[in-house]
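Researcher: I need the complex structure. Ligand is nickel (II) ion. Inputs:
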Amino acid sequence: MAIRPVLRMGDARLLERARPVARCDTPELHALVADMQDTMRALSGAGLAAPQIGVGLQVVIFGVDHNPRYPNAEPVPHTVLVNPTLTPIGEEMEEGWEGCLSLPGMRGLVPRYRDLRYQGFDQRGNAINRLVSGFHARVVQHECDHLAGILYPMRIRDLRNFGFIEELFPSEDIACD
Ligand code: NI
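Model: Output:
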């Protein structure tokens, strides 16, 4: 398929609300997901939402392999999630550093629900229903925010915790977003 250009913050399309996918298991949806996977892989991202490549549909992908360079990053299963709904479990929030392919080179400290249930469908229309916490829950909240036109800086409580990776973490070897 194809690596697609990723829209960057400031592009008004990132602020729009995405529409639900009417039907799963169509050639169009499979092609969209393949492009998203190619794009995320090429940029070493942890997740990508369809609006980031200019497609206003409720489709997100995410997944993090165990990486010995980042032993503290918990692996997250590679997932395609269509028409998601998120239900927080409890009210506990925790802060964590996030990046985004639409803000290359930057990081921010973002509060997210620690525990949540997410539901939706994979690209073939199989139901997905998972109870997750921690980093997995964070990644899902970040990606699904894109479907509501929300970028992570809009969630940061103290903008002093927002900046360029090289300045925030000068001693760390962080190469990707
Ligand atoms: Ni993002």
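Model: Summary of the prediction. The domain at 12-168 is CATH 3.90.45.10 (Peptide Deformylase).
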